[in-house]
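input
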Amino acid sequence: MSETYNYLPDSENDYMSINWSRAAGLAFLHLMALLAPWFFSWDALGVAVFMHWLGGSIGICLGYHRLLTHRSFQTPKWVEYVIVTIGALALQGGPLFWVATHRMHHAFTEDNERDPCSSNRGFWWSHMLWLVLPRGQTFDPEVHKSLVPKLAKNSYYSWLNQYYPLLQIPLGVVLYMLGGWSYVVYGIAVRVVVLWHSTWLINSATHLWGYRNFDSGDNAKNLWWAALLTYGEGWHNNHHAHPSIAQAGLRWWEIDVTWWAIVLLERLGLAHHVRRSNWEIDRQLGKQTEVI
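output
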């Protein structure tokens, strides 16, 4: 973690300053998603489910998280660009922002000042309020660049970090051409909102409920239903204990759909240097699981 990341409080605005543009965006997509009953069709629902998997598992979990943030495997650059672009379509921030804030979370887990989504500040703070009530340097682009210097030097990732919301425009046009407003409502609003809350559960729910395979030094836990909603990310205690490996699910029942995708890429010759569980991790798994 870069030494340039230090919490700098603002006594006047630190706790109550609302980012109104971000709050408006969140509210607009939630309201648009409420239109879903009036635009329902089975094929539109299928589009939302497919894009939830594509954006959630491939874009966010595999791309932003396991590839860019932790470098738990490598791909050819063109494959990385495709996957990261899919991640940007998930509308959860640009790659520099996402990777930097996630690295803050790992470096200072549950520190109320330096972990942007500290679960110690309550469920709703860690779930979503941290996104609209910025504290300290959480949203400082210069701090992000210092935490992800290699990504910051990449001109495409820098462009994507600034203009990622614009990707929804061509996507919306394509969806409208394929299925009208039904596809737009489900393919953008419903998909984005459900994926938001699915991802946010990893910051909130998995730090409150579940079981632990490892003493990770924090409250991260494995939560089966969060893992199902996030394609494997809910095995959060495993991940906090061993963040550099590409697997999140380590026991036979810990289903990790994103790991399956990484294995498939590897077999196709599109992923290499995949970091796997090793004998020491397996030895630790032999100890009694702690149920919380």
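quick obs: The chain is about 55% helix and 0% strand.
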